[in-house]
Amino acid sequence: MRRRLVIVFLIPLLGVLVLLGGGYAWSSAQSVQQTFFAENAGDLSYFVTSARQALSTGNSLVLESEVVRYEELYGARITVVDRTGIPWELNGRESRLDEETLAQVSLALSGRRGETPQAVLPWSAEEMTLVEPVFTDGDVIGAVVLTQSMAAPRGEIVRHWGWLAVIAVLGTGAGVLVVLRLARWVLRPVQRVDEAMAAIEHGDMDARIDDATGPPELQRMIVVFNNMAAEIERVLARQQEFTLNASHELRNPLNALLMRVEMLATGLPESWDEDIEATREEGRRLVRILDTLLSLSKSGHGDPTVRAVDVSELVAKRGEAWREVAARSGVRILVHGESGIVCATDAFVVESALDAILDNAVKFSPTGGLVELAAERTDESVCIVVRDHGPGVPAAELESMTDRFWRSSGTQNVPGSGLGLAIATDLLASIDGGLEIEEASGGGLRVILRVHREAEL
After folding, report:
1. What catalytic activity does the UniProt entry give for this protein (predicted)?
2. 333 neighbors 319 (Cβ within 8 angstroms)
């Protein structure tokens, strides 16, 4: 986020610097060149006056001495052309003009004054040439040509541009620092909110944001976040306290119940041994559930105990455990499918989720109905399929069945809280599993419990 914010602020700043710097650079280059042209045009006018006298008298001695001194001082070349277009030999030097200069000389001899050169980029021309006609009594008697190197103005322009580049770099650096400080000032509260949220996610419910710096809108967000975190901590503390108290309160009567079962078992014939053992197993399972609730209440979250589990055997045991409960409602439970299906998962989580699904299947099956229970293996996971032959639900409501407290419009009179499928979904999610519900052919529903951790055996 900081990178994007810096880019958003920095691009307009660089654009303004480029526009202003480019405009100033071009303006300064024009100014230097125009000053250079004006100075040389003034020198040329001086030589036009001297050349008029020399051309009128045919004597170039005075003109030659002035030309020599000027060329030594300024490094320019002065050429005088008579009315025939032939350059004079000044100080024994034979002058030769290029075609472009000769074209300017022809215009000057026709009576047209030379135009001031237009400003160009400093590297576009090596030399500047100015040509002025020489008049006497209204007649053109010759022309004066001044040729000057562009090295001096080019160096001046480069110096200007160099200083401009230094200023631009310093300005860009200052802008970057300002943008970074601004981005840090804006994003620091967001970063602290992110850190506090990460801490709360990892179980540190005391995480708060103390320093409310930054823009006023973000300061308000921090206050709201702290209040929200405090409320969440309070609610979770109450839930944890309730779970802890409920677990403790249930443990004592459960232990007493198990002791009474043991006492009753001593006076029952051997034909009751199987029922007594099933009762003991259910009691031990309730103890495991209470232990899990205690662990959740103390740590705030439970970590799944992953080990190799025979899912086929687990399905068979839970089907047998629910068979008598289902029989009271006139419902039969049929367990089939593959055997020996083993995967790495948490047996307690799978059992609890399967019990929630079986409870729904038995509850909503009609008298004389059948609930089919099977363990299956696919290419990606191990599945437990619960198929009932009840009334089912409309296709439009299938996606809502795992929502908390959801009840179908056709089963509002059936006792229940609407939490079974939601709890099963959360339990399976804790072991990277999932719950799928689909319509079954012939009526009823197919509920698929997927476990995604398959063991390599």
Report:
1. ATP + protein L-histidine = ADP + protein N-phospho-L-histidine
2. yes
Please report where in the chains the tokens 């801490």 appear, as a residue.
199
Q: Tell me the angle at which helices 311-328 and 347-363 cross, rounded to the nearest 10 degrees.
A: 30
Domain that holds residue 34: 2-157
In this structure, is residue 235 part of a structural domain? Answer: yes
pLDDT for the residue 106:
87
Measured from the Cβ of residue 47, the count of other Cβ atoms closer than 10 Å reads 23
Which range among 164-168, 218-222, 286-290, 428-432 shows the weakest confidence by mean pLDDT? 286-290
Question: The CATH number of the domain where 416 resides is what?
Answer: 3.30.565.10
105-152 confidence digits (pLDDT tens): 888 888 777 666 666 666 667 788 888 888 888 888 888 888 888 888
The residue among 160, 172, 166, 119 whose CA lies nearest residue 24 is 160
Shared domain for 19 and 132, answered yes or no, is yes
pLDDT of residue 456: 44
Cβ atoms within 10 Å of 300's Cβ, excluding its own = 14
Phi first, then psi: give them for residue 146, nearest 5 degrees.
-115, 125
- What pTM did the predictor assign? 0.44
- Residue position matching structure tokens 């009691």: 283
Does the residue 456 lie in any domain?
no
Contact 427/352 with Cβ under 8 angstroms? yes
CATH code where residue 233 lies: 1.10.287.130
- How many structural domains comprise the chain? 3
Q: Is the confidence at residue 331, as pLDDT, over 60? A: yes
**Of 247 and 302, the one with more pLDDT:** 247
Residue 288: CA count within 13 A, CB half-sphere: 13
> Residue 64 maps to which CATH number?
3.30.450.20
* pLDDT of res. 48: 87
Q: Per residue in 178-197, pLDDT tens?
A: 877 877 777 777 777 778 88
245 shares its domain with 320: no
45: CB partners within 8 A, 6+ apart: 132
Instruction: With beta carbons less than 8 A apart as the criterion, state whether 129 and 100 touch.
Output: yes
Q: Do residues 280 and 379 share a domain? A: no
372 assigned to some structural domain = yes
pLDDT (0 to 100) of residue 291: 65
Q: Are 428 and 349 in contact (CB under 8 A)?
A: yes
Q: Are residues 41 and 84 in the same domain?
A: yes
Average pLDDT, the chain: 79
Tell me the three-class secondary structure of 219-231, residue by residue.
Answer: HHHHHHHHHHHHH
In a domain, 66, yes or no: yes
d(CA 99, CA 118): 20
Looking at 272, 299, 326, which one is the last position of a domain?
Answer: 299
In the predicted model, what is the mean pLDDT of residues 23-49? 86
